[in-house]
Amino acid sequence: MKYKDLKKKPWFKFMSNKYVLVLTVFIIWMLFLDSNSWLVHRELNQEIDKIEANKLYYENEIQKDKRILKELDDSIEIERFARETYFMKRSNEDIYIIEYEDSLNTDKDE
């Protein structure tokens, strides 16, 4: 195809317009090559989404801990918590920890 034939095509006239060329270069620059490009913004937005999810998780954990602390205002609840979590006992008691076979960590390669 000759250059003269190509010049007659309507899409070539449109694409060879200097404004279209400058706009195309500008769009490519802004989307991919600039330090504040669309790709960088997309990565930053994904990071923001992850951080917001972490924030929501930790806010829920804080609310859960506040409920537990509110329950532990009572001395009976403090004693129950200490017994269940830290296996504490009174001086005249014995504690037996029962572990079932399915709850033990055993090697199956034996």
From TrEMBL:
One Pfam family from the record: DivIC
Entry protein name: Septum formation initiator
Protein species of origin: Psychroflexus sediminis
Lineage of the species this protein comes from: Bacteria, Pseudomonadati, Bacteroidota, Flavobacteriia, Flavobacteriales
